[in-house]
Design a protein that fits this description.
The complex is a heterodimer of chains A (247) and B (377). With 247 residues, chain A is an alpha/beta fold. Chain A has one domain (38-62, 86-246): P-loop containing nucleotide triphosphate hydrolases (Rossmann fold), CATH 3.40.50. Chain A has seven helices and ten strands. In chain B, strands 1, 3, 4, 5, 6, 7, 8, 9, 11 and 12 form a ten-stranded mixed beta sheet that branches. In chain B, strands 2-10 form a two-stranded antiparallel sheet. Classes of the chains: A alpha/beta (247), B alpha+beta (377).
Chain lengths: 247, 377
Amino acid sequence: MAASITTPPLVDIQNLSKSFGQGDGRVDALKHIDLQVYAGQVVGLLGPSGSGKSTLLNVIGCILEPSSGRVALDGQVVYDGRWLQKDLRRLRLDRIGFIFQFHNLLPFLNVLENVAVVLEIAGAGTGPARQRALELLQYLQVEHRREVMPSSLSGGEAQRVAIARALANRPRIILADEPTAALDSERAGVVMDLLRKVAAEQGAAVLVVTHDEKIFDRFDQMFYLRDGMLADIDGPHTRSKDVAERR
Amino acid sequence: MNLALRDIRHNLGRFVLTCLGLSLLLGLVLSMIGIYRGLVEEALSLSRTPRADLWVVEAGKRGPFAESSRIPGDTREVIASLSRVAAAGSLTYQSVEALRSGGKLRLYVVGYEPGRPGGPENVTAGRTMGRSHYEMLADVKSGLVLGEQVRLGRNVFTVVGLTRDQVSSGGDPVAYLMLQDAQRLQFELEPPVARREAERGAPPATTDVVNAVVARVAPGTAPGQLVEAVGRWKHLTALSQSAQEDVLTKSVVDKSRRQIGLFTVILLAVSSVIIALILYTMTMDKVREIATLKLIGAPDATIIGLIIQEAVAMAVIGFSLGALLINLAKDFFPRRVILLPGDGLALAVVVLVLCVLASGMGVRLALKIEPAVALGG
């Protein structure tokens, strides 16, 4: 889905920098990054190891404090030289969904509980949480595996459950760290299609960190991160140009 | 959703094994407390059997358990004649080793006068002592059975009754004999020794000696008054029952008591370190899961709850299993193990507190885990 020009970006990063260490040992992991991701958009973030992809993801996920710049999520400025939100945990819980390379499902909870736990943490009662979790599993077509423990799931199934968990609290922003790295081409395509479906149907902004060339054609826009600097890739991989054109 | 319960269920085998290990450790702590109580109880049981108010022993001695004491056999009549004394009895105490079934049997022989203070109140099997010589009441821990004959000194004694929980402070089962039999066993010289003594002109050795006289005072009389009265006689010393018990616990078994007490404290300290390490390791094993929980927005309380609930579950299960184990095994110990409900409850509380405190290491680790760990960064 193409992003609407009139809506503000769900992820709006301006002039963001992040350094580690001081003096001669100082490392500039991110340098003056500007990035906007809109509702309904699936954006890829590429780059070699050590280029700052994970650092950027951690900053957007409110896990890592930037050194300078401005970060706004879902229309709310959360960082502007300092954190402006007191409860970053609650912000993550309500607004951001995370998807991991190895799904990171909790091994001691079954599939249904893995999804419901996020809702219960957010304060939902057991009944409503299970009901919503069941709906999500149906939506992602893994409902038949609801009583199974994560160790019994295939890679593709586990990643679908992880997506269901990420969607549990209806977040507007979904951050995915190498979600297809452990999957073959077919399953990787299915996962990316699901993310595109989520973005389109739920109006979420999806940012995917990846090295996986086989999914490049699934992105609306791709950015390349090298030495802490971001470059927009305006090439054949970019499916939708309208956002880039607007920029 | 209870995460601790789910985690325990997921790693049930490992959790059960951990609890089993902890239960053995806590069972050991509980048994040490039981042995400690047993030691004190055994030391006191012998002094409590006569249900005496007053102990009269040799002057300047704190006998008959802490020091040797010999007083003339007629002391009982002297004490009994005091106006505020209701009853008095003579007693002898002696450790002996007898041969039985090719092995050695250690007994603590008490000589007493049936019908007077000093003997056991009840027997658990057989009958009490009559007026005949060469009869014996033995504690069941001796392994002797009714009708069995045992040679002590120059005479053979027949077991006519069995008692329970009658042991010396050293743990030897008590055998009760008639006073005169016990006196001969303790004081009568072997014939060659007696002949040698006679040839060198020594007066014949008397066996009319006892180690102590116990007395019960008349109702309304304070034992202290009689202690003072007897103390005026230069050849005797009197101790009240409480003074006698003090001598036993603070002198006779004091070192053993302190040794066991210290060992119990060390065991508790070792248990706390082990519990802390177990909980720390359990938390270490869950670093990625904890990071994931943090990343998806779980509050610290959820993480702390997970660790502390597991610690409490481990404490409760470990202690319960340990208590059950030691209750089943206590009768196989060679000496008495007394498990008092109060001690068990106190240990349960201590273990619970220790587990919660020990989980502090795990909680500290958990709180330091960065959510970014879940992302592999």
